[in-house]
Amino acid sequence: MGSVVEGIFWNEYKLVDIDSEGTEKYHCKHCNTTYVKNVTRFQNHLENYMNYQKIQYTKQ
Predict the structure, then answer these.
(1) Distance CA 37, CA 27 (A)
(2) Which of 22, 34, 40, 56 counts the highest number of beta carbons within 10 A?
(3) Helix (H) or strand (E) holding 35
(4) DSSP secondary structure string, 8-34?
(5) What residue spans define the domains of the chain?
(6) Model confidence, pTM
(7) pLDDT in tens, 4-49
(8) How far is Cα 53 from Cα 28, in angstroms, rounded to an integer?
(9) Cβ neighbours for 16, distance < 8 A, ≥ 6 positions apart
């Protein structure tokens, strides 16, 4: 059974496709970018995206 953190993490992405080889593609709900399933990439993307949003907000 997955952890609570794991469940929250996956809520940020939506499964959009599974190709004929079984490769899963997910769509980021924040920036509309699609990625092949890679947990490390997903985590790094969210961290970078959230940091970028904070910077943009403080510039206003």
Answers:
(1) 10
(2) 34
(3) strand 34-36
(4) HHHTTEEEEEE-TT--EEEEETTT--E
(5) 4-59
(6) 0.68
(7) 345 567 888 999 999 999 999 999 988 888 999 988 888 888 888 8
(8) 14
(9) 25, 26, 27, 34
